[in-house]
Design goal:
Layout: H1 7-32, H2 38-79, E1 89-98, H3 102-115, E2 119-127, E3 133-142, H4 146-154, E4 158-168, H5 170-196, H6 200-232, E5 233-241, H7 256-309
Parallel strand pairs: 1-5
Antiparallel strand pairs: 1-4, 2-3, 3-5
Helix pairs in contact: 1-2, 5-6
Length: about 325
């Protein structure tokens, strides 16, 4: 007995050793009986049983060392930060700022984003009147510079409104990465089966399956790229406007000139609409006048023709016999 060991533990260790040796000997005996006779099998079994105990002891020692190593590696992994434990967050912000000059503010915002390593995704500017402009810009900035750029843009003028949102998509990123790994392994398995296939029907079936799995893999890769883009670059929507000048503000009570201007505008509008109505009806009126004139000319011609064909009543009939004279009285 070795010093420091408990008798019960030693006996249990010996029992496990003997049991492992017996199991190994039985397996070797069964595997060797098909290729050799019974005498050789007994000899091999005896030799294996002879060396089984030291091997089992070495196996137990190796297993203990392996358990100890795995415990140390697990503790080391716990100390190491995992790459998947890094949060993946989609950040968005909307700013509405009133500035003195929209073109200068747009140039300042573009310079701030480009110096932070970002970019201008879209920009639209419209002119409200002769002196005022408004601009709508969508900016993409790195996550590390998001707060600094947001503060700089908000301080460029009078802040009218500010809205920020943050969405954690870490679970979605991990799920997509896991599905991509699984799908890639599935595609590789189908390709190996295609290499082994001999029949044309099997090849056609495997090609269709491979196309479907590759399409799904490409869809997952697109989702991964979209998530990477949205979690790497934050989105800031900036709306810039200029203050309204005092001359353009409406008065509380309209005066006589305002009423006169409104009446004149209404009169001009009415005249314009009447002129438009007359212009629209002019072709129809011209056609109706032509038809009336043509009808009158036709009636005049018919009346003249009728009169020319009838005999004049004032002329005597020359062919009629003269009336006999009445006898005179004696």
């Amino acid at each position: 007995m070795q010093p420091g060991r408990h008798p019960d533990r030693l006996s249990a260790h010996r029992s496990r050793t003997v049991l492992a040796a017996g199991t190994l000997a039985a397996l070797l005996a069964l595997s060797g009986c098909g290729g050799s006779d019974s005498a050789d099998s007994k000899g091999v079994a005896g030799d294996n049983a002879k060396y089984a105990a030291p091997r089992a002891e070495r196996g137990d020692a190796a297993a203990g060392a392996a358990d100890q190593g795995s415990a140390e590696s697990s503790s080391a992994e716990k100390k190491k930060p995992s790459a998947l434990s890094t949060p993946h967050v989609i950040r968005k912000a909307s700013l509405s700022v009133e500035v003195k000059s929209v073109p200068k503010a747009v140039a300042a915002a573009r310079a701030a984003v480009e110096s932070a390593g970002g970019l201008v995704a879209s920009e639209s500017t419209e002119r409200l009147d002769a002196t005022h402009e408004a601009s709508h810009i969508v900016l993409r900035v790195p996550q590390g510079e998001y707060d600094a750029v947001l503060q700089e843009l908000a301080g460029g003028g009078k802040l009218l409104s500010r809205t920020t949102t943050a969405k954690d998509v870490t679970d979605q990123v991990v799920d997509v990465e896991s599905r991509i790994a699984t799908q890639r392994a599935s595609v590789n398995r189908v390709r190996k089966l295609m290499d082994r296939a001999d029949k044309l029907a099997d090849v056609v079936t495997l090609e269709g399956e491979l196309s479907n799995r590759q399409a799904e893999l490409e869809s997952l890769l697109a989702q991964q790229e979209s998530l990477k883009d949205r979690t790497t670059l934050a989105t800031i929507t900036l709306s810039l406007s200029e203050p309204e000048s005092p001359s353009n503000k409406e008065d509380d009570d309209p005066g006589f000139m305002d009423a006169l201007g409104g009446g004149w505008h209404a009169f001009v509008t009415m005249v314009r609409w009447i002129a438009m109505a007359v212009g629209a009806a002019a072709p129809f009126l011209a056609a109706a006048a032509g038809l009336l004139l043509l009808g009158r000319l036709l009636r005049t011609w018919l009346a003249r023709r009728k009169v020319s064909q009838e005999p004049h009543a004032s002329q005597p009939d020359e062919q009629a016999p003269a009336a006999p004279e009445a006898p005179t009285a004696p």
